[in-house]
Every structure is written in structure tokens, then in C-alpha cells.
């Protein structure tokens, strides 16, 4: 088996209703909520505020979120685990709904990175003007009308369950003329189009029988993951102008406590021990696929049981390294796919059940982790970052 430590190529494919809105309006000419509190946040009055064409609404802040409090002197940090999903489409395999229900069962929150064109009908594809590519083109398939409807339902329920909705942008272009070649302005164009697609799905689909999504995308989306993990430098500059707080588009870091790049929290995919520690590979399903079946999405079925357990073991080895060591957060990235007989989905099922039930573990979204990190003393975070992943320190010397 090839030793691949930082190879990534995301492959995605397209495969209940929100509360009924009661009050229209809620935005002024600058796109801000017309009623705000002293901190500039919406003053929630218990009524739904419909936004724009009725595709989205404001129904109050997310509920059930982790309370962001600074660590007390000598306190061991929680072991954070973030399960994140690229694409965010409810297809015929119903994997979006499966993981939404699994998260609820194990008192976990997850991050679902939505691809903008998954709310755009193929008949309206010319509304998409991708940077450096022809109008209406994409490196992935546009969704079916039914998949748009089912995805809308899952987005609403996922948000109400306390999960996070982030962005996976739109056309999933990689390599030449992909995100790695895009300027700051081209990234801004991609982001603006993402917001347009998700805020105008009623106009673009013509659906009148589905209630608005119960959240405002411009407030909800505070970060994302770039396709193929490309172009982070210019993306960070672009994202900062939208007030984004984190980015999950880098790769190859070992399991250490996060730091900021350009003022934005950097949450990379991490290097985990593959094949019992023979080498380190990224914490994402495609990288297991690449190493196990050479990138073939359906390899030798006789190998599936072995590969599944190998994947589980790598995730658990990475988890145990920090759970009994530095308590650095563990980041796991995946796709809603049936690669190699669905073994990577089955592996995640096992890992969620194994880790989210352990004492001291918090299975959270990137949004929740961001808020927690921002609540910590800078000097505490610096000492946490100095720890080796497997190092179990005297916490009284780290958290003061």
C-alpha cells in the first residue's frame, strides 16, 4: 500500500420543513436585522422574521450550544471531537439524515458544509458564474429537484438540532483553475454566489410549499472548507471580509491545539497513525480510500472488512493519542459517499459511538469550538500548543 500522507481529492455527488414564518421583514438596507441589542445582535422577540424572498428567516440564535467558559486553574480541557461533512446533500442514500439522527442519539453536534449549487436546479445552472470557468459549469453534478427538497428539510432539522451549517462553496473545482488559482476577488465572487443560491432557492426553484429555512445564512455561516483543500491563503483574506471566524481548508498538521492564520482560526485535517502507526495519513475518508484501494471508489470487496477496521483503528489511535495526552481537538472530515461498499460511513458510525460516550469528551461543531477557544486566556492556549500530542502534562502547570 502506498504511503500517502497529504493527498486529497474530494469527490461528491448529489444523491421536514422549517417552522412557518409569521412576520415579514427584519432587514434594513444594509442587510442587517432592523432590531438589535446593545451588542448589535438581533433582539429576539419570539417571532419569525422572514428574509428576502422567503427562502430563509431568523428564528432566534442556535439552541443547545456548548457554553464557552474559560478553563479554571488546573482544569483538564475537554476532549473536543469535530465530525464534519463536505457537500451536505440528502441523496437517495439518506446519509445526511442518518448522521443528523446519529448526532442526536449521542448528544453530539456536527458541522455540515453545504455546497451552494445543491440548492440550485440544473435548469437554472446558468445563474452560476464560476471563477475561471464557463457559465453554468461545475466539477460536480447539479442536484435533482427531489434532492433539493430533501436537502432543504435536512438543513432545517440539522440547524434546529444544534448542528452547524457551513460552506463548501459551489462548483468544486480543483487543480488548474481551481481554488488554488483564484484571487481574493474570485473567492469573494464564489462566496457571494453561494449566499445568492442559498438565500434565493424559492425564487430559483419556484417551490411554494416549503417554509423558509429557520436561520439566516449570513449569520450562520462563519467558516467553511475549500474543495480539495486548495487556495486557503486568498480564501482567508476573502473570508475575513465576511467576518468569518474559522477555516477548515488546510491539511497535514499533527494533532496540536489550533492557532490562527490572518486572524481566523485554522482547523486543519490532521495526521493520524495509519496501519498501526507505520505512517501518518489525513483524517478524511478519501485519504483512507486512496491508500487502501489506490483511489478506486469500489475496490476489492474481499478487503472491505479489513479496510473498515483499519480505518476505525486509525481514528481511535488518533483519538486515544490526545484523549490520554494533550487533549488537542480531533478533526474528522468526510463525504456522504458509499466508497468501498460504504465502509467509511460504517467506520464513522463506530467512532461516534465509541468516542462521544466517553467521559470528558465533547462532540461539537466548529462553531462551538471557535467560541470555546475565544473564551480562553491567550497564555493558556500558548501553553496548550506547546504540548506534544501524546504528552499528558500536570494540568496545574498548563492551565493557571
Describe this structure as you would to a colleague.
The protein has helices at 95-105, 145-160, 184-199, 201-205, 217-220, 232-240, 285-293, 304-323, 339-355, 366-374, 378-385, 395-398; strands at 49-51, 56-58, 79-87, 111-114, 164-167, 246-247, 259-261, 264-266, 271-274, 279-282, 330-335, 361-363. It is an alpha/beta fold and 400 residues long. The chain has a single domain, classed as Glycoside hydrolase/deacetylase (TIM Barrel, Alpha-Beta Barrel), CATH 3.20.20.370. The strands form 4 sheets. Strands 3, 4, 5, 11 and 12 form a 5-stranded parallel β-sheet that branches. The protein has a 3-stranded mixed β-sheet with strand order 6-8-7, with helices on both faces. A hairpin with a 4-residue loop joins strand 9 (271-274) and strand 10 (279-282).
Overview features:
12 helices, 400 residues, 12 strands, 32% helix, disordered N terminus, alpha/beta, five-stranded parallel sheet, globular, TIM Barrel
Tell me the fraction of residues in β-strands, as a range.
5-15%
General shape? globular
Main sheet characteristics: 5 strands, parallel
Domain unit count: 1
Number of helices: 12
Total beta strands: 12
Give average pLDDT, whole number: 90
CATH topology: TIM Barrel
CATH class: Alpha Beta
Class derived from helix and strand content: alpha/beta
In short:
This protein has 400 residues and is of the alpha/beta class. The chain has helices spanning 95-105, 145-160, 184-199, 201-205, 217-220, 232-240, 285-293, 304-323, 339-355, 366-374, 378-385, 395-398, and strands at 49-51, 56-58, 79-87, 111-114, 164-167, 246-247, 259-261, 264-266, 271-274, 279-282, 330-335, 361-363.
Amino acid at each position: 500500500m502506498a504511503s500517502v500522507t497529504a493527498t486529497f481529492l474530494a469527490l461528491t455527488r448529489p444523491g421536514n420543513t422549517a417552522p412557518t414564518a409569521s412576520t415579514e421583514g427584519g432587514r434594513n438596507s444594509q442587510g442587517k436585522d432592523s432590531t438589535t441589542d446593545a451588542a448589535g445582535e438581533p433582539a429576539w422577540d419570539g417571532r419569525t422574521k422572514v428574509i428576502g424572498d422567503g427562502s430563509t428567516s431568523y428564528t432566534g440564535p442556535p439552541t443547545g450550544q456548548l457554553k464557552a467558559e474559560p478553563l479554571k486553574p488546573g482544569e483538564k480541557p475537554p476532549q473536543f471531537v469535530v465530525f464534519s461533512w463536505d457537500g451536505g446533500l440528502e441523496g437517495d442514500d439518506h446519509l445526511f439524515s442518518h448522521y443528523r439522527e446519529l448526532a442526536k442519539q449521542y448528544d453530539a453536534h456536527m458541522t455540515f458544509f453545504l455546497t451552494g449549487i445543491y440548492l440550485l436546479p440544473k435548469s437554472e445552472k446558468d445563474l452560476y458564474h464560476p471563477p475561471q470557468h464557463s457559465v453554468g459549469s461545475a466539477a460536480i453534478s447539479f442536484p435533482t429537484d427531489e434532492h433539493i427538497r430533501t436537502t432543504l428539510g435536512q438543513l432545517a432539522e440539522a440547524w434546529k438540532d444544534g448542528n452547524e451549517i457551513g460552506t463548501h462553496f459551489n462548483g468544486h473545482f480543483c487543480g488548474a483553475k481551481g481554488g488554488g488559482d483564484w484571487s481574493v476577488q474570485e473567492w469573494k465572487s464564489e462566496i457571494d454566489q453561494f449566499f445568492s443560491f442559498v438565500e434565493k432557492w424559492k425564487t430559483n426553484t419556484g417551490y411554494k410549499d416549503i417554509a423558509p429555512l429557520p436561520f439566516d445564512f449570513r449569520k450562520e455561516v462563519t467558516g467553511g472548507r475549500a474543495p480539495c483543500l486548495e487556495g486557503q491563503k486568498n480564501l482567508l483574506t476573502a473570508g475575513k471580509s465576511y467576518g468569518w471566524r474559522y477555516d477548515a481548508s488546510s491539511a497535514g498538521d499533527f494533532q496540536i491545539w489550533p492557532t490562527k492564520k490572518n486572524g481566523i482560526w485554522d482547523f486543519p485535517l490532521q495526521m493520524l497513525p495509519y496501519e498501526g502507526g507505520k505512517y501518518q495519513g489525513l483524517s478524511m475518508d478519501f485519504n483512507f480510500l486512496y491508500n487502501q484501494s489506490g483511489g478506486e471508489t469500489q475496490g476489492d470487496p474481499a478487503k472491505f472488512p479489513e479496510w473498515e477496521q483499519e480505518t476505525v483503528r486509525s481514528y481511535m489511535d488518533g483519538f486515544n493519542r490526545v484523549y490520554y495526552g494533550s487533549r488537542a481537538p480531533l478533526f474528522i472530515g468526510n463525504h456522504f459517499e458509499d466508497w468501498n461498499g460504504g465502509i467509511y460511513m460504517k467506520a464513522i458510525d463506530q467512532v461516534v459511538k465509541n468516542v462521544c460516550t466517553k467521559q470528558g469528551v465533547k462532540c461539537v461543531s466548529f462553531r462551538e469550538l471557535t467560541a470555546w477557544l475565544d473564551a480562553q486566556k491567550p497564555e493558556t492556549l500558548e501553553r496548550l500548543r506547546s504540548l506534544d500530542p501524546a504528552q499528558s502534562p500536570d494540568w496545574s502547570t498548563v492551565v493557571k
